[in-house]
Write the structure tokens for this entry.
Amino acid sequence: MSEGPLEITRWCGTMPMHHHLLDVQPGYAEARTGIEDESFAWRRPRRETVVTVPVVVHVVWHEESENVTEEQIRSQIDVLNADFRMRGAGLDTVPAPFAPLVADARVEFALAGTGPAGEPTTGITRTRTETAVFDADDTVKHTASGGTDAWPADRYLNLWVCPLGGGLLGYAQFPGGAPATDGVVINHRGFGTVGTATAPFDGGRTAVHEIGHWLNLRHIWGDDGEGCSGDDFVSDTPNQGGPNRGRPVFPHVSCDNAPDGDLFMNFMDYSDDAVSVMFTQGQTERMDACLAGPRGSFLASPGEPAEPAEPDDLAPTAA
Ligand SMILES: [Zn+2]
């Protein structure tokens, strides 16, 4: 664990980047509209196979401590493979009224074994940078601006790990944006479960949240500030006011959603890692639509049939 005061909070830069791209990137607004139209129209049974997404982790570091270990990287991959398969830590804490909503996204992640040119790789790149702290401005995604260039985004999930400023834990690019900036960026202090991962964001759930965005999920409160009119375009998540932070106590009621209240234990809220434990059925359907549409290249090789998660598979609750 890192020493010193924690200057990060649970906040994600995905929506500001989304609005920025709507303003400046030709074709992005049209691409997003098309993707949402497809997603709204999606009415198919759940995908039965498991999709395995090859991941390249780009470690971009300024201080030695930010050059995170392979152990820390693998701890993050392990969390992804638990949480996207409905066997992550803390699932037993889901309140009974919400238990029927819990769903297996049937997505797994593996460090890439083959690089863009067919060469063997560890799936990890390491770059020393002169940039002390990055912002949610995509500079970390380009070698020319002190970061590391993306690998082809139709074949790899690019995951940059770096120091982020402004209290930022991470941000993602929704499907439909430019390949050169496609992927997710994670603050090293909210990455994995060991090394520089720092409580209360040392459960690996920042990357789960950001990859949720990468698979087209929205924030569960609907990104309308504290209001009740915003929508996450998922029918089985309760309408809720603003984001929840820390460790809310069930039920936390907002927007007339009594008696059960907010689904604050969902990965797409802002609750602490120990509390963020589930995707819903509706969210997995939205991810299915994404993996059949804009991220369809990851379905190119047939996956293994999905085996239902058994209670015995549930990992122990994180400390
Ligand atoms: Zn977010």
User: Anything to note?
Assistant: The two ends are 13 Å apart (CA to CA).
